[in-house]
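pasting for ref
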Amino acid sequence: MTHDYAATEAGETLVWPGGFFGYTGHGGLRESGDDISIVASDRPAVSAAVFTRSLFAGPAVVLSRRNAAGRQLRAVTTLAQNANVATGREGERNAAEVVRRVAGILGVPEGDVLIGSTGVIGRPLPMTTILPHFDRTAERGVEAFTAGPLDVARAMMTTDTRPKTAARTVGEARIVGVAKGVGMLEPDMATMLAYVFTDAELSPEDLDAALRGAVNRTFNCLSIDTDTSTSDTVAVLANGAAGPVDPALFAEALADLCLDLTLQMARDGEGATKLLRVTVGGARDHAQAKRVAKSVVNSPLVKTAVHGADPNWGRVLMAIGKNSDEIDIVPGDVTVRFGDIAVYPDEPEADTLDALVELMRRDEVDIVITLGLGTAEATVYGCDLSAGYIRVNADYTT
């Protein structure tokens, strides 16, 4: 596996894997800027996808679950700024009509199109502007499909402050991912959309296993504010244009790419100024390690301490202690470090406090906990909690 592709706004050009092409345009979902995107393959692609388990999953998720069940897709389309959730039968009809229009533009079966919709909940899609937009796109045909991954990532944004892309290579095949998401980030999975496109040739079983393994280790280890979205979707399309690859190497590269996108989302969390990474080791099993780590990364008191560069390890102990069902955790066997500085059970010396504050002022803060029970470990990702988060969400629909 090599990491010879990197997407940056500053200049590097990121292109689609072989056989994929993209489109973005303005469909009236927001006042200005592209808000509709399509990424398609010139041939059938093996696919895998995972979705939110929210009881209020939107029509886009319901429809996409059905279309993804066949493990073959040709395209993904995304509508930004409007989640089309809690919109009743009208929302269902509108989502289906968007899929029908995209399939018509591409000349593919409707069942081969996956749809994502993200943004405000409870508002119908503005079909009076969306449908004319698709009519104009159909008239332009293939000439309209000139968008690269960075263009698509920008068109998917809602409260994101920057687009999120990543790429990896495996042998002759390339893997390119685009994502959006900065708030309501808590599995299952987030108010996030992440799409991965590759020209690797893989079986449906290997692709599905690789995606689920990657999601469990990355997107499902991400939390910004503990809230679970109605619209989150992660999908991967593999069209085989570059030929077969080693499934194990592909799974490793896919997980690495998903971690890259996960960290980008954590750093861009609504109002975030710092990346917070919590690792719990010495656990009975992975599930226990993840539960404890999530209780720390989700704690508002821990997050505000990180924001203020306050090395208040008592708040970390509080967050661990909330796991009252984990009766095998013994406080005297637990250790806590901020970065490489131990803070519990032995209180740091007075002259270490200045070093702790400097550590907490960094753009990335690591909290490392050892439970003293076993060998299992888990790392979760989040961010600090600032006044900026409140400002973004207090005025979200107004």
